[in-house]
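All the exercises in this workshop are built on plain-text protein records. Sequence and backbone structure share a record, each on its own labelled line. The structure tokens are whole numbers drawn from a learned vocabulary of backbone shapes. The record below serves as our worked example for the rest of this section.
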Amino acid sequence: MRKVEVRSYNEKWPLLFVEEREKLKLLFGNEIIDIHHIGSTSVPGLKAKPIIDMMPVVKDIDLVDQYNQEMQAIGYEPQGENGIPGRRYFQKGGDNRSHHVHIYQVGSYDIERHLAFRDYLHRHPDVKKSYGDLKERLAQQFPYDIASYINGKERLVQEIEEKALDWYKKLEM
């Protein structure tokens, strides 16, 4: 059974991202357009589950499935779309997860959504603190119930995401 653990920010998380990014670049080659560090481990100072979330952007999402065996060879379990149409999702580490890979095709709305959320937390320390504190409380309240942990933060995540997308769109103008 997987334990829900939220920790203080770790300076090694960006290094772990870079290390894994290089493996994915080698594996996918020219299919990769970019690879972003997303999720809580990408936001300095934010409390997080110690799992590195990565978001490769590819030219053609339908070609990703051809790389499942190569991904397995470097420790990833292919999960298909895993509930989000247009995504390919991989997990590394089994019950002691270390990485999640969320692959989207260039132009996907989900790319902007993830980047807006990350960048908004970077620039809004009060929101970052509230979000981190909530995650820490939920992890203590539901240490072996990931579904309750996720449900407990869902409302705040949606609120932050809405504000983040509005903020992000204004930056692009």
Remarks:
- The CA atoms of residues 13 and 64 lie 25 Å apart.
- Strands lie at 32-38, 52-58, 76-78, 87-92, 99-105.
- The radius of gyration is 16 Å.
- Helices lie at 13-28, 68-73, 109-123, 125-141, 146-172.
